[in-house]
Sequence to fold (356 residues):
Amino acid sequence: MKIAVLPGDGIGTEIVAEAIKVLGALDLPFEMETALVGGVAYAAHGHPLPESTLKLAQDADAILFGAVGDWQYDKLERSLRPEQAILGLRKHLGLFANFRPAICYKELVDASSLKPEIIAGLDILIIRELTGDIYFGQPRGRRIATDGHFPGAEEAFDTMRYSRPEIERIAHVAFQAAQKRSKRVTSVDKANVLETFQFWQDVMIDVGKQYPDVALDHMYIDNAAMQLVKAPKKFDVIVTGNMFGDILSDEASMLTGSIGMLPSASLNSKNQGLYEPSHGSAPDIAGQNIANPLATILSAAMMLRFSLNQETAAQRIETAVQAVLAQGLRTPDIYSTGTTKVSTVEMGDAVVKALG
Ligand code: IPM
Ligand code: MG
Fold:
């Protein structure tokens, strides 16, 4: 079981260290190797995704990823910014299927800004297509003014596109996931305005015919964004494109109390996967030992389940996370009166202890 460990920027190092600690306590034969990615890789090697890091990731069974991004790199040309590292890994490894579950643990119903009755018992799964759409459309660029007086751009553009095979494969992932859950899929699109998403809807319907046991419905992205805060429990599996999935998954994170709780898995057709928290690098709180490591620890559990075939170990971690929440331990992002505030490291230690 070869794991490439890519902590990245900001809080990445701190939260990944806690996940490694938890994995280490399982007593399984992991081979772990760490490499630089994101801004720290740019600083050391002049590129956010150095060749050696990419090679390590490609040769591994799974990648445990922290987060990338830091304001100090915002002025770099786009191809050298930290975010390109994660986009490059997704593209190079073909990690097209992104699973972002949103589960509201009963202990955290009060940590959300939404009313407890709206979110108590929530358990939904957002499946985001991750290697197509406007994120990777061609052509893209800026048109430069030609009159010589304005060196700046006159307009900029990105193109939205999806091919039939790209939609088909994510559709199969969604329908198969739904077969193991409540057998309902909501496909989120913008077919009322965009050709790309009319096509998306048509292909979803086509693939859906192969899964007569799964009910498929369609919702426009704007309505879905609204329904997600109005009545989130009406959803079960949501499948959508790269851009809409990016936005909806951040929105869904708030249904769980904190974005610090949301794990994610990005898989390719060989079940090789990249596992990362859904949140970012949070440079504003980096180095303070206050970040919530649970999303990363839960991502490690997903890694055990999806890429390393260790279901029992995955469940041990998930049960331990529930146990520490039940003990009332909270990092500042999920803290509320009556609970015990703990640091990043203390939270990791508590999960290790709760593994039993
Ligand atoms: C995410 C992030 C990334 C994305 C960024 C960091 C490129 O927001 O994983 O959701 O937009 O996909
Ligand atoms: Mg995002």
